[in-house]
Automatic annotation (TrEMBL):
Domain of life: Archaea
InterPro entries in alphabetical order: P-loop_NTPase
Region (Disordered): 326-356, 750-779
Descriptive protein name: Uncharacterized protein
Amino acid sequence: MIDDIRRAIGLLTLEGGVVEVRALADGVTHSGYFDDHALLSEQIEALDADPSVAGIYVTLNDVNPALLARRANRIKMRLSRKDATTADADIIRRRWFPVDIDPVRPSGVSSTDEEHNAALNAAERIAAYLAEQGFPASIRADSGNGAHLLYRIDLPNDAEATALVKGCLATLDALFSNEAVTVDTANHNAARIWKLYGTMSRKGDSTPERPHRRARILSLPSEISVVPPERLRHLAGLLPREDPAASRPKAGIDLAAWLAEYGIAVRSTRPWQGGTLFTLAECPFSSAHKDGAFAIQFVNGAIFAGCHHASCSGGAQRWPELRGMYEKKRRKPEEKTPGKKEQEEKTTSPPPADEHRERALTILRDGDPLAFLLDTFNKSHVGDRTVAECLAMSLASQSVENTNGLHVAVSGNSGKGKTHACTTMQNLIPAAYKLKGTVSDKALYYDDDLRPGTVLLFDDVSLSDDLQEVLKSATANFREPIEHRTLTTERKLRVCTIPERCVWWLAKVEDLGGDQVMNRMLTVWIDDTVEQDKRVFEHMKEVEAAGRGPAKDDVLTCRAIWEIVKEDILSVRIPFARRIQFSTMQNRRNPGMLFDLIKCRARLFFLQRDRDDDGAVIARPEDFAAAATLYSAINGEAGGQETKLTKNEAAALATVAQMGIEVFTVRQLQSALGLPYQRTYRLLHGYTNNRATYAGLLEKCPAVSYIDATVTGEMIGVGETVRRREHYFSFDREVYRTWSNSTTVWLDDGPDDRDGGPHGFTFSPGLHQKSGESVNEDPVHDGGDCSIGEICTEICIDQSGNLHRLPGTESLPAGAGDATSGVHEIHSGENIPDIPGQILPIREPAPYGGFSRCKSGCKGVKTSVNVQPSALVNPADYIALPVPKDEPCHVCGRRPTSSVRRGGGGTYLCYDCLKRAKWPAKAQPLPGVLDHRTFTRTKVEIGRCDICGEKKAVYRSQEAHTRICEGCYARMVREWNGREGVR
C-alpha cells in the first residue's frame, strides 16, 4: 500500500512542490500541507488505517508554496471553521484535466460490482473517443466506486482556462452520461481535490453487495504527453450552444414527438443550454457503431443532430439529413409532388405583408413608441402612467447591452390594480417572453421553456430567503444565465439554469423584501386615491356599455414593437453623462438606475437616434429630460425610490407629519389612517412570517423612534396609584423632512458634452440661463442672458419700449426710480412684499438683505424686490442634528439651525437653506401672483408656510402646489381686494 501511495504522489504532484492532503471523516476534516513527499506517504498510511476516514484526497494542481506555513509537513486533525484549506486563487497553474465517471446510485453508499463495472466501461468509451479527437493517452484509474481519467495539461489559472475545462466536461457529460453513469461536471475548479490512489474508499458500511474498495491506478501511458490547448477548445466547442442557422423557432416541429413518430429509440434525455438533449439508442447515420448519436432541441425551437464519433461527422450538423432519411420513407404514395412551375411560384411569391409590423416600424421611425405603448396600456388600465412607464423601461432594458437591467417593485393597497397594471403591460409583449401563472423559486430553475428576455411577475408572493437570493443573483448577473446544480429523485446530476436578461416585476401590498432586494428595483406606487377609484369606475361603465375592450390591432402593434426592439441587443452611449448631477447620492445604485433609464429610452427610440462607429445608439438630452421626469416621479408622489417606502408607509409618515405631533401611539395612527390595528402595528414594527422578514418604519425612517414608557395614574373609583407600560413613538419632523427630501437631478452647463449638443438643462423657473433667448422666450430680448446662477426678477423693456416680464412676475408692480442703462438693481423696498431667496447659488453672494446686480444688459425700470442670496451649498456635506441648535445659519443668519457641516468647524445650516440646496430646481412662490380663491382651509396644520417660512400652514392650493399660513392668506386677500378696487 505504501508503494502505491508513493507512486501516486509522484505521478500527481511536482517533485518538491507543495501539496495539500485532505481527509474526510464522520463530519470532520483533517488537513495538512507537505513538500516532504516521503513524510506525506507515511502520514497518509497511518491516516488510511483509521476506519472513520471515508476518503483521502490531494490537490491536483500547483499550490502556492506560501501555504506550507499553514500546517507545515503535518496533518491537523478536526479542522475548525477558522482553518483555511486551498482555494481556487491559491493555485498557481493547472496541470491536470480530470474526468470522474460515477455510477448512478444512492448517496452515502459504495457501488455494487455491476455499477462499478459500468463506470469502468464508460471510461473505456470516453478514452477511446478522446483518442479519436486527438488527445494523447491518459492515466486510467479506479476511484474505488467509479473510474478516473487524467490528462496532462499546462494552462494558467485564469477565467479562460476555467471556462475551457468546464466546457470540456460539459461536452463529455452530454455525450456519455446516461441512466447508469454520469460524468462529474463539478471538477472544473482549479483547487479541486482528487482521490489519492492506494487509499481506501469508505462510503457507508462495507457489505458483500456494496464493499469498500481501494483506489488504484489501472494503466499508465509510456509517456505522459500534454494535451494541446486547441484540442481542449475543439472538445469544449464540439456541441453547439446555439444553432446560428436557426435563430427562430421551427413552427410545427416538436423533436420529442418527431422522434417518437418515426420510431427512433431514445436512450436518455437531459437539459442542455436551456433546451433538451436526446441521446439516441442507435446511430442512424452509420452501421459501424451503435452509440454516439444525439439530437438537441434548443429553447428557441432550433434542432441540431449528429454523432460524436470522428468517423461519423464528429459532431457536425446532420439534422437535415436525419429528417430527410425518415420523412422520405413515410411519404404517402398518393401525395402529389409539386411540379417545377408550382415550386417556382411558391418560392418567388412574396410573403404576405405583416401590417402590424409595418405599423410598428412606422411608429419607431417617425412617431413616439413610448406614448403609443402607454396609450394602449391606458385603454385597458386607467391611470397609473408612471407605473406603466417603469414597466416599459424595464422591458427596454432587456435590449440594452451595457446595463444590469431595470426591475420593478409595485406596491399599494389590495384591490387597487397592482396585478392588473402588470398583466396589462404583459399583454402588450409577445407571448414567448412572459411567464404565465404563478411559480416557485425552485420551479424557475426547472422550467425548460424559460427563454432569455422573459418577464417574471411575482404577484403578492412572500419572497423567501431562497427567492431573494435568486433575485439578487439574477439582477447582479443580468447579462449571464444563472446555473444551479442539483440531484434528481433518481440521483442524477442536473444542471438547471435561469436564462439571461430576465426582468422581475414584484407586486405586493406590503414590503417586498430586504434592502439587498429593494435597492435593485424601481420602486413605484399604484394610484389608490379616491379620484382614481372614480376614473376606474367610469372606465368600467364605458367598457361594459361598448361591449368590447381595447382594439386588438393596437395590442398586436405593441407586440410587434417589442419584437423589433428585441431583435438586437445594442449598446447605448450617453455623451453628456459627465454633466449629469445628483443632489444626493447616498444610495449608489440610484445614479446607475437613472443612467439606465436614459439608455432604455434611447434604445426604445433607436430608429430616431444616431449611431457611433461601433454601432452604439447615442442618447440625446431629450432622453435625459424624460428619464429625469420619471425618476423625479418615483422619488415623489408616485414612488419611494430613495426612501424605499411602500405606499402605505409613506402615507403613514405623511399623516403623522400633517398631524403636527411629536409623540403618538399605534391607536392614534390607526385612527388617522383608518387601517386595522394589526396592519398599523406591522407598518411600524415590521413582521416575520414563515418565509421572510420585513422591515417596518422603525428600521427604515430615522425620524421615528420607539419609546417604552411607564405611566403612573390613579385607578378610577379606587383612589389607588397604578403603573402601567405604554408604547409610544416619537416623530422628529425636521429629521423627517430632511430625510424625505426628493432627489433632484440636472444637467450642468459644462464642456464635457463633446458632441455639440445643446447647453445644460435647468428646471428653475424665473432665472436667466444661457439659452440664447430670454426666459419668457422673447427673441427681442436684449442679447445676452444672465450667466448661470445669477438671479434676475426684473421687469425688462424690449427694444420697442414695451414691458415684458419674467414668468410668474406679471402681477408685481413696477417700482419707481430712474432707469439705469445696462444694470438692474434689486434692493429692498417698503411697498413690495418680501420674497424668499432664490435657490440656485450665485457666484458673488451679497450679504443678507443686500442686493446683487443683473448683468443681462437689459434696459429696464428698477424694481424693488427683496432677495435672499444663498452661498454655494452641497447638501451631502451636512448631517442632520438630532435637535435644532441655537446657532446662526452661515448662509442666511437665521436661528435655529437643523444641520452641521461634516467635520465640525461650527458651520451650521438652517432647514430652509438646506432645502433650497437639495431642490435646486424649485422656486418659492411669489405672493403677488397667487389667487386666494384656489386655497382651501385644512383641518390640521400641514407644515411651514411656503411664503414666510415661519408660521404653520393651514391653507393649501392644489393648483399652485402651495401651503400658506393665516397671516399670509389674509395679506393675499387684502392685496387682491386692493387691485379690484374693493374697500
